[in-house]
Design a protein that fits this description.
Helix content: 40-55%
Number of domains: 3
Radius of gyration: 28 Å
Keywords: Cytoplasm, Protein biosynthesis, Pyridoxal phosphate, Selenium, Transferase
CATH architecture of the largest domain: 3-Layer(aba) Sandwich
Distance between the termini: 43 Å
CATH class of the largest domain: Alpha Beta
Number of strands: 17
Subcellular location: Cytoplasm
Function: Converts seryl-tRNA(Sec) to selenocysteinyl-tRNA(Sec) required for selenoprotein biosynthesis.
Largest sheet: 7 strands, mixed
Structural class: alpha/beta
EC number: 2.9.1.1
Number of helices: 20
GO molecular function: L-seryl-tRNA(Sec) selenium transferase activity
Length: about 475
C-alpha cells in the first residue's frame, strides 16, 4: 500500500507533464480548472489505495497516465451540455421528464430571432417610450380564449399562487375535497393555498360534492370559490361534482370570485376528434368563471408558462401586485408563446403546425407507415416485431385517454435489451426507449421522420 502511495506524483510534477501542457495549449479548460481536476483525481486514487481497492500485484503503476485519463473524463463531462436533445421513443407526447411540449418551427424561429438581437420587450415602438411586457401577449390570449384580459407568469403553480395571494389573502377560499389535487413534485393545491395566506375551506367528500355544500360554506369572510380541474386523475363510479355553470349563480349572488384552475390549458377542442373530454379555456370562461389559469407547455403546445385569463378588473389587480414582477417570464418565453398562440388563428392549420396537437391526433395507420419507412433501412441483425399498443398524452393530462399506436420491438442476439436500452439513453443523441417482452420498444408517435437518420446511426452501434 505505502509503496503505491509513494509512487503518486506531486501536483507540481503533473503540471510539468507534456499531457498537462497539451491541454493548456488547446485551451479546453483553464489552468486553474485543470489543476483542480488533477487534485481531485490524485485524491480519489489515494482514497482507493487506502480503502484496499487495489490488488497487491499492482505494485508498479504509471500514475501520470492514469491521472490524466481521469482528468480527460472530467474534461469530457465539462464540455458536454447538461441539457441535451433527446429522441423520445416512449410514445408519451407531453413527457414531463423530457420537457413536455415541443415547440413549433415558428416558435423556435421567433425565440432565436428574439434571443439573437435586442427586442422591444418593454419598449413601445409606436410611442417611443417604456412599455409593458404584459401588452405583448395579452391581445393574443384574449383572441384565442375570449377573455376580457390576461397575463402570463412563469408556470401554472405560480399563476395559482398569484391569484390566491393577490385576491384571497387572509380570506376563505372554498374548494371541493375531491379537487384537492397533488401535481408533480409533491406540490399540493392545499399547500399552495397555505403559502398564499388564504384559508382553505373544504366542502363535500372525495367522490361527491353538491351545490348545497358550497352554498352552506359561504360566510362574510369568503373571497372565492375555487374549482380545480382534476386533469391528472379520474374518479369514477358513485361520483358527483358541481360545474362552473352551476356555481356561477351562487358566486354572483354572494359577490365572490369564481375561479377555475384548468391546468392542462386546452384551446383546441380535442373532443371534436373524439379524444378525451378535456374542457377548453373558452368553455370555462363562457360557463361563468371569472378567472381561469392554465399551463403553456401542456395541451396548449407552447413553452413553460402560467397563463391567467378572465375578467379585466381582477387581471388589473394581479398585474399591479408585487409578485407579478417576481413571477414574470423572460423575452424568449414570450416569443415562443406569441408564435404558439398565433398558430391558433388558423384553425385549419393549427393541428399540423403545433407538434403536440399533431402527435396526439396521429392515427395508428400513420404510425405504422412511419415504422415501415424506418424499419426498411435497418440491418438484418435486428429481429423486428410490430405490436399494437397504446400511447399516453402525458404531462398529467387526460389520464383516461389511450391513443391507439403500434410499437416497433427490436432485439438482437448480440446484446440484451437492458444493455441496449441503457446505452441508447447515455449516447448522443440520447434515445429514451421502453422494454417490452425483453425487447427494445419504440413508439413512433413521438419519433418524427427527421430523427430517423440519427436513430439509425445509434442502432448501428450495436451491430
Amino acid at each position: 500500500m505505502y509503496q503505491l502511495l509513494r509512487q503518486i506524483p506531486a501536483i507540481h510534477e503533473l503540471q510539468q507533464s507534456r499531457l498537462f501542457l497539451e491541454l493548456i495549449k488547446t485551451k479546453q479548460a483553464s489552468k486553474a480548472k485543470l489543476t483542480e481536476w488533477l487534485q481531485e483525481a490524485v485524491s480519489d486514487i489515494r482514497k482507493e489505495i487506502l480503502a484496499g481497492e487495489w490488488k497487491d500485484e499492482d505494485n508498479v503503476v504509471e500514475f501520470t497516465e492514469m491521472v490524466f485519463a481521469r482528468v480527460s473524463e472530467r474534461l469530457s463531462d465539462h464540455s458536454t451540455y447538461r441539457i441535451r436533445r433527446v429522441i423520445n421513443g416512449t410514445g408519451t407526447v407531453l413527457h414531463t421528464n423530457l420537457g413536455r411540449a415541443r415547440l413549433s418551427e415558428e416558435a423556435i424561429q421567433q425565440v432565436t430571432e428574439t434571443a439573437y438581437s435586442y427586442s422591444n420587450l418593454e419598449y413601445n415602438l409606436s410611442l417611443g417610450k417604456r412599455g409593458s411586457r404584459h401588452d405583448l401577449i395579452e391581445d393574443l390570449v384574449k383572441e384565442t380564449t375570449g377573455a376580457e384580459a390576461a397575463m402570463v407568469v412563469n408556470n401554472n403553480a405560480a399563476a395559482v399562487y398569484l391569484v390566491l395571494k393577490a385576491l384571497a389573502k387572509g380570506q376563505e377560499v372554498i374548494v371541493s375535497r375531491g379537487e384537492l389535487v397533488e401535481i408533480g413534485g409533491s406540490f399540493r393545491v392545499s399547500s399552495i393555498m397555505e403559502e398564499s395566506g388564504a384559508s382553505l375551506v373544504e366542502v363535500g367528500t372525495t367522490n361527491k360534492t353538491h351545490l348545497y355544500d358550497y352554498e352552506g360554506a359561504i360566510t362574510d369572510d369568503t373571497a372565492m370559490v375555487m374549482k380545480v380541474h382534476t386533469s391528472n386523475f379520474k374518479v369514477i363510479g358513485f361520483t358527483k361534482e358541481v360545474s362552473i355553470s352551476e356555481l356561477k349563480s351562487v358566486a354572483k349572488a354572494h359577490d365572490i370570485i369564481l375561479y377555475e384552475d384548468l391546468g392542462s390549458g386546452a384551446i383546441y377542442d380535442l373532443k371534436q376528434d373524439k379524444i378525451g373530454s378535456e374542457p377548453t379555456v373558452t368553455e370555462a370562461l363562457e360557463n361563468g368563471a371569472d378567472l381561469v389559469t392554465f399551463s403553456g407547455d401542456k395541451l396548449l403546445g407552447g413553452p413553460q408558462a402560467g397563463i391567467i385569463a378572465g375578467k379585466k378588473k381582477w387581471i388589473d389587480i394581479l398585474k399591479k401586485h408585487q409578485l407579478a414582477r417576481v413571477l414574470r417570464v423572460d423575452k424568449m418565453t414570450l416569443a415562443a408563446l406569441e408564435a404558439t398562440l398565433k398558430a391558433y388563428a388558423n384553425e385549419d392549420n393549427v393541428t399540423k403546425s403545433l407538434p403536440t396537437l399533431r402527435a396526439i391526433r396521429l392515427k395508428k395507420e400513420e404510425i405504422s407507415a412511419r415504422i415501415q419507412a424506418f424499419s426498411a433501412q435497418l440491418s438484418p441483425i435486428w429481429n423486428m416485431v410490430i405490436k399494437s399498443d397504446v400511447s399516453q398524452v402525458g404531462g398529467g393530462t387526460m389520464p383516461e385517454v389511450e391513443l391507439e399506436t403500434e410499437l416497433l420491438l427490436l432485439s438482437t442476439k448480440k446484446h440484451k435489451a437492458q444493455f441496449i436500452h441503457d446505452e441508447l439513453r447515455k449516447g448522443t443523441p440520447a434515445v429514451v426507449s421502453r422494454i417490452v417482452y425483453d425487447q427494445i420498444a419504440l413508439d413512433f408517435r413521438t419519433i418524427e421522420e427527421h430523427e430517423f437518420e440519427e436513430l439509425h446511426k445509434r442502432l448501428k452501434e450495436f451491430e
